[in-house]
Write a structure and sequence with these properties.
With 72 residues, this protein is mostly helical. The chain contains five helices and no strands. It has a single domain, classed as lambda repressor-like DNA-binding domains (434 Repressor (Amino-terminal Domain), Orthogonal Bundle), CATH 1.10.260.40. 58% of the residues lie in helices and 0% in strands.
Length: 72
C-alpha cells in the first residue's frame, strides 16, 4: 500500500509534470519546495490542497488522500 507521498509522486510523474508546475497550478500557488516536502512525506497538504492536486493530476481525491477508489 502506497502512502500519500508515493501516490502524489507517482501521479505527478504519470502526468509528466514538474514539482514546480504542480505547485503553480494550485490556488494559491505553492512553491516547488512544498510539493517536494509532500512527496518526501515531510508534511502533508490540507484536504483542500489534496482536492486541488487531484484535479491537476487527473486522479480521484479519495485515491490520492487514502488510496480508496471512488465508489468502493
Amino acid at each position: 500500500m502506497l502512502d500519500l507521498a508515493d501516490r502524489l509522486s507517482a501521479a505527478r510523474k504519470a502526468r509528466q509534470m514538474s514539482q514546480a508546475a504542480v505547485g503553480a497550478a494550485l490556488d494559491p500557488p505553492q512553491a516547488r519546495r512544498n510539493v517536494c516536502k509532500w512527496e518526501k512525506g515531510r508534511c502533508e497538504p490540507s484536504l483542500d490542497t489534496i482536492h486541488q492536486l487531484a484535479t491537476v493530476l487527473n486522479v480521484e481525491p479519495c485515491w490520492l488522500a487514502w488510496e480508496v477508489e471512488h465508489g468502493k
